[in-house]
Amino acid sequence: MIIGIIHVNRKKGKPSPCKRCKETIATGEVHAVVIVRYGKAQEAMFKMKAAQGQAWTRKVGLKYRRLHLKNCLAEWLAFTYLQRTESRRERKGGRPPLPNMSPEEKLVRHRLVRRRAEIIRQIDTTDDTTRITILADRLLEIQGQMEVPVTPPLKNNMQRNMVLSKVQKKINTALEEQS
Ligand SMILES: [Zn+2]
To answer: Any residues with CB less than 8 A from the CB of 37 and at least 6 apart, and which?
Structure first.
């Protein structure tokens, strides 16, 4: 992961706070300046804010992070790395890790997850209520065979959430019509 370009400079002008410990970097002190470029996510965020009419000044897409050379630089790098991997996982709708499974169990689960996804896709693309109830039964059966249920998508994964709620509505409607 490219976090930025690190410069090591002697502090010129006024003293300023360290991004990590918030304590002063004195004039003349040798310190690190990390030049962070806005990534795709920040760019998208900027466009969204601008579209909502929220004034935002963009300093040509660059941010400067001043840090003490001693521990602050290392700590800030580790913190930034964690923060970015975390937010990336959330954006991409990642899921929590699975418990330890044998290769055999993994294979079984993989097949069930794929079958489940296929059935969800089939329900999504049909309007035949009889077919939907049959597919819904199969879906329940597959979910029953899974020792660890498929975790629901995170809130941020709107696309998946939309498909799932649409499919659930279709199942509910089909079941109501049948009874
Ligand atoms: Zn510091």
So the answer is: 4, 61, 62, 63
